[in-house]
Specification:
Helices cover 32% and strands 24% of the residues. With 304 residues, the protein is α/β, with parallel strands linked by helices. The strands form 3 sheets. The chain has a 5-stranded mixed beta barrel with strand order 6-11-10-7-12, surrounded by 4 helices. Helix 5 links the parallel strand 10 and strand 11 (237-241). The model has no long low-confidence stretch (mean pLDDT 95).
Length: 304
């Protein structure tokens, strides 16, 4: 299926927002009445999403060094959304680092509020880039490989996200930016990060939806599992995770340039459980972050 043309970039497509006196971004603990969102966020150019609050906090402090960002003596980075216990949000110059939790529902809430935040801030949707940095299970890939997603598909291998709206099922295409992906591949080569292009299957749970045999429930055999995973692999699926479908669909709907970069923690054709030593896993999980950091540095003209 060929990607449909991207619409003209626009963070929001909702006429109701213009009639609101105040917009309270509840899950970010920000609002348009008590926070000067333009002053706080108008220079944002890169938004980096990841599941873990701790990982995205660490990424923010990593970007302080990578961007040579000056923090006044006696001060430090603060979680801008500390008034909420749902997500963390850090800002380092033009970079936002934000956690999205696990799965499509959690990410969907955050995407709505981040898109509205950038709209209120007066950012140019044609100049802001979105990145999801995460982990995944690979298919036929060496663990530690970073998959740059060409497109996301659901558990039925369809390249769109279905949303039940007003009693109807609406389908939103889940494609990403091929030009941006090519740039990222070049950066990956320059920093020695093993990376591949491929489709990403996004599921609604970690166990049955991903054909695991080690959940509390399992109504299929190992042969059933392997037949499905091999079929998915033959159709270009390189990895499996739980957020890319929503991320790609909402970015495409907004016309925002976006990419998904997920490191593989295991080869699902070889097993289900993750048993890699913790220190090795930590290094693998940093690979998408290092790749994006170098990409951002290049875009900003920062050199060592």
């Amino acid at each position: 299926m060929e990607p449909p043309p991207s619409p003209k970039p626009s963070f929001v497509r909702n006429v109701n927002l213009a009639a609101m006196d105040e917009d309270y971004l509840y899950h970010l603990a920000l609002d348009t009445k008590h926070n000067d969102l333009k002053d706080m966020f108008r220079d944002v150019k890169f938004v980096c999403f990841g599941g873990s609050p701790g990982r995205m906090k660490a990424f923010a402090f990593y970007m302080v060094k990578q961007l040579k960002y000056k923090i006044t003596a006696g001060q430090t980075l603060e979680d801008i959304s500390k008034g909420s216990d749902r997500y963390v949000l850090y800002k380092v110059g033009p970079v936002l680092s934000v956690s999205h939790g696990m799965g499509i529902p959690s990410l969907s809430i955050l995407m709505h509020e981040i898109l509205k935040l950038l709209n209120h801030a007066g950012c140019d949707p044609g100049e802001v880039m979105f990145f999801r940095l995460g982990t995944s299970g690979g298919l036929g890939l060496e663990p530690g490989t970073v998959v740059i997603s060409e497109a996301a598909v659901d558990g039925l291998l369809r390249p769109y996200m279905e949303v039940a709206t007003l009693g109807m099922v609406i389908q939103h295409p889940a494609f990403l930016c091929p030009e941006l992906n090519e740039e990222l591949l070049e950066v990956a080569k320059s920093v020695g990060c093993q990376s591949v292009l491929g489709k990403t299957m996004c599921t609604y749970d970690f166990y049955e939806g991903q054909a695991r045999l080690d959940g509390a429930f399992c109504d299929y055999t190992e042969e059933d599992k392997m037949n499905f995973l091999k079929r998915a692999h033959k159709r270009g699926i390189a990895n499996i995770e739980m957020e890319s479908l929503c991320f790609a669909a909402m970015c495409h709907r907004a016309g925002v340039k976006s990419a998904v970069l997920c490191v593989t923690l295991l080869d699902r054709l070889q097993g289900d459980q993750i048993s890699t030593p913790h220190d090795v896993m930590e290094e693998w999980q940093c690979r998408p972050q290092r790749l994006i950091a170098e990409f951002i540095r290049k875009k900003l003209g920062i050199t060592d």
